[in-house]
């Protein structure tokens, strides 16, 4: 509130503008821009366009000129936080759907300055255990977790009563749901031998599908399941070509998850290996890494939205040492980008930067020359 009052009274100066430019800007939410730039103030993008126009509109701004291309920060839509995220910014990742396996509030890990959603995982095998202890344990964790970001629920149970209650709890607390399809939810000797795998039909029957849920796939989804996800506005997260079957035709919204915090560009490239090289598929996969991930996390709309670079979006972006033109941008990023990230910015701040011999070293906002 004091900050807002200061702005209204003119006592709080607006933060400085920094213009980041590159030979190619790939906003994803708009067409590629040759010799493009984005103007950043604080944690937001305030303008995107040709470099000459942006610099002319902000003559007193700081300037950073990068080699290669600037793209929206990549989004890893399914990663286990207990497996580490130390290398995520080096892959161009600025937001994650991170699954925390321990409900103990003190042990929920942070996201190393990354945005996104941290999902508290609950695996309860039956209604009796859920009512006796696990429901209260989850609610306590939701209320008391010491975490600065957005919290969701990673829900896994073979019991329809438990899953229905988890869906209700997510709506009651305004939390997002993440559910893994095709993986066991309980041990084989748990008493649920015929219901240890969740499928889209099961989730729909218990009311767990919808735009507030995204599902991580471990295997192929049949046409009925794909149709259900489309009808309910639920994003499917892919991490293997096996799970991608029937989902690369553009009808369903997809995102990419690495599970282990690896390189999502490499994961996306592998998804398309079984298909003939097609610029339209490359474009779809790049969109899945950015806008698709943002939609999975419920962060694709409103002020500070993720997944694209445009006025009002959060200033999450990555720079890749990749040469391309507007026609080949997505193909070049997908096939030449892995391992070639130069820098990652989250909410306008540098999250990671590689210092190479051809760069000028110095402050985070010093000009990088190629």
Name the overall outline.
Answer: globular
Count of helices? Answer: 10
**CATH homology group of the largest domain:** Metal-dependent hydrolases
CATH topology of the largest domain: TIM Barrel
Which terms would index this structure?
single chain, 370 residues, alpha/beta, Urease, subunit C, domain 1, TIM Barrel, 2 domains, eight-stranded mixed β-sheet, eight-stranded parallel β-sheet, 16 strands, 27% helix, 26% strand, globular, disordered N terminus, disordered C terminus
Description:
The chain is an alpha/beta fold and about 375 residues long. The protein has two domains: about 15-70 and about 305-355, Urease, subunit C, domain 1; about 75-295, Alpha-Beta Barrel (TIM Barrel), CATH 3.20.20.140. It has ten helices and 16 strands. It has helices at about 1-10, 50-55, 125-145, 160-175, 200-205, 225-230, 240-245, 265-270, 280-295, 330-335, and strands at about 15-25, 35-40, 45-50, 60-65, 70, 75-80, 95-100, 115-125, 150-155, 175-180, 215, 235-240, 255, 315-320, 340-345, 350-355. The strands form two sheets. Strands 1, 2, 3, 4, 5, 14, 15 and 16 form an eight-stranded mixed β-sheet that branches. Helix 8 (about 265-270) crosses helix 9 and helix 9 (about 280-295) crosses helix 10.
């Amino acid at each position: 509130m004091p900050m807002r009052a200061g702005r209204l009274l003119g006592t709080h100066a607006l933060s400085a503008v920094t213009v980041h430019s590159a030979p190619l800007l790939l906003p994803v939410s708009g067409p590629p821009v040759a010799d493009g730039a984005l103007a950043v103030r604080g944690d937001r993008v305030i303008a995107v366009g040709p470099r000459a126009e942006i610099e002319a509109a902000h003559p007193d701004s700081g300037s950073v000129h990068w080699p290669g291309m600037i793209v929206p920060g990549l989004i890893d839509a399914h990663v286990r936080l207990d497996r580490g995220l130390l290398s995520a910014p080096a892959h161009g990742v600025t937001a994650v759907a991170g699954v925390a396996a321990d409900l103990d509030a003190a042990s929920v890990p942070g996201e190393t300055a990354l945005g996104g959603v941290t999902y508290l995982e609950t695996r309860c095998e039956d209604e009796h255990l859920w009512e006796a202890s696990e429901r209260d344990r989850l609610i306590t964790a939701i209320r008391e977790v010491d975490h600065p970001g957005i919290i969701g629920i990673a829900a896994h149970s073979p019991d329809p009563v438990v899953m229905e209650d988890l869906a209700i709890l997510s709506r009651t607390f305004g939390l997002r749901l993440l559910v893994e399809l095709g993986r066991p939810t309980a041990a084989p000797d748990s008493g649920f031998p015929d219901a240890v795998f969740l499928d889209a039909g099961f989730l729909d029957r218990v009311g767990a599908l919808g735009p507030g849920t995204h599902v991580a796939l471990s295997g192929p989804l049949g046409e009925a399941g794909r149709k259900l996800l489309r009808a309910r506005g639920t994003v499917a997260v892919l991490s293997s070509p096996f799970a991608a079957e029937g989902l690369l035709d553009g009808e369903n919204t997809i995102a990419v998850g690495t599970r282990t915090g690896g390189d999502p560009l490499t994961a996306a490239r592998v998804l398309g290996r079984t298909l003939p090289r097609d610029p339209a598929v490359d474009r779809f996969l790049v969109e899945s890494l950015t806008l698709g991930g943002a939609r999975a996390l419920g962060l694709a709309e409103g002020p500070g939205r993720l997944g694209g670079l445009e006025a009002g979006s959060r200033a999450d972006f990555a720079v890749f040492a990749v040469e391309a033109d507007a026609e080949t941008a997505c193909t070049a990023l997908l096939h030449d980008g892995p391992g070639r990230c130069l820098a990652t910015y989250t909410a306008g701040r540098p999250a990671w930067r590689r210092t190479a011999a051809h760069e000028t070293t110095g402050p985070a906002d010093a000009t990088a020359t190629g």
